[in-house]
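Sequence design from tokenized structure. All designs in this work follow the same two-part layout: the structure record, then the generated sequence. An example of the structure record is given first.
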């Protein structure tokens, strides 16, 4: 999306604007970089159980996409284990029979079926679907790790308060591996940025630094007749095509007029939904520029922080 198209969209909506750069020539080529949403800004996208989902912008420049993380989990606690779901029994290499010295224990390795069922409840409209680079997903280790493909750091992605959420990655605590459990005996989860965690491995035997604040959560585990079923939060990610997003404005502003408001970027990963904005996206609006005027006279240049009036012919969009 060029600056000309962006300004044409604004022209058709409001008719006047304040120049925030050195000058614009008559062809409306701006001497600046393209507009982008701010990291930490909260935006609204899609609905879950008839409630709009609020997202944090965790990365606003990821190879042409915004990376969004749900500001709160869509489900606070959910197990992967369910009696109706086919789970695989994990085998301990030291005790293949699952018992030693009177201990009778085993783990079950469960697929993401229960989590995927919740994700499939999300409803989007046609306009929202058109801006998705990658639809709602649970990130894996390669995507979410520091230096990973999503471009997030621990501070970006880990809640400041201890909320743990699922990753789409199997793994195991180092201590479990030491006792002979396979590297895929647990599901890796992301814990809070201040959490104390142990060393873990991915199922590919990759060592995860303690600084990443991750650990392995057993899906289902029994020992001495006692059963433990792991639960974590379901936090989703999504990426949006930057080119198709013009700006974002307060959710209460829908009258097409200009309003003064501040973008709140201070609450990244605070596990809240404060001050969200609604996305304004590329539409079918068309307009043709007739004239640029300053003080009722045509002009091709204007000083910074001055106001000009734009004369246009436009459809209603």
């Amino acid at each position: 999306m060029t600056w000309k198209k962006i300004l044409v969209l604004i022209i058709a909506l409001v008719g006047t604007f304040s120049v925030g750069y050195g000058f614009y020539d008559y062809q409306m080529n701006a001497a600046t970089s393209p507009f982008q949403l701010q990291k930490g800004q909260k935006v609204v996208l899609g609905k879950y159980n008839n409630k709009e989902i609020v997202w944090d912008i965790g990365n606003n420049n990821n190879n042409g996409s915004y990376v969004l993380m749900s500001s709160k989990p869509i489900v606070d606690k959910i197990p992967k284990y369910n009696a109706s779901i086919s789970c695989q029994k994990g085998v301990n290499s030291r005790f293949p029979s699952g018992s030693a010295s009177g201990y009778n224990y085993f783990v079950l390795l469960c697929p993401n079926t229960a989590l995927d069922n919740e994700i499939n409840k999300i409803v989007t409209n046609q306009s929202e679907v058109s801006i998705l680079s990658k639809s709602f997903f649970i990130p894996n280790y390669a995507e979410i790790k520091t230096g990973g493909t999503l471009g997030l750091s621990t501070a970006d992605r880990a809640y400041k308060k201890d909320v743990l959420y699922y990753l789409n990655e199997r793994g195991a605590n180092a201590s479990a591996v030491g006792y002979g459990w396979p590297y895929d005996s647990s599901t890796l989860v992301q814990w809070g940025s201040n959490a104390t965690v142990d060393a873990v491995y991915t199922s590919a035997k990759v060592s995860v630094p303690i600084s990443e604040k991750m650990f392995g959560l057993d899906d289902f585990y029994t020992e001495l007749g006692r059963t433990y079923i792991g639960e974590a939060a379901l936090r989703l990610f999504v990426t949006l095509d930057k080119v198709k997003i013009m700006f974002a404005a307060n959710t209460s502003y829908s009258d097409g007029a200009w309003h003064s408001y501040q973008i709140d970027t201070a609450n990244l990963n605070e596990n809240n939904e404060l001050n969200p904005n609604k996305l304004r996206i590329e539409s079918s609006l068309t307009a043709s520029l007739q004239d640029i005027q300053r003080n009722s006279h045509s002009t091709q240049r204007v000083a910074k922080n001055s106001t000009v009036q734009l004369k246009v012919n436009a459809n209603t969009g």
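The two ends are 17 Å apart (CA to CA). We note this feature because it recurs in several other targets discussed in the main text.
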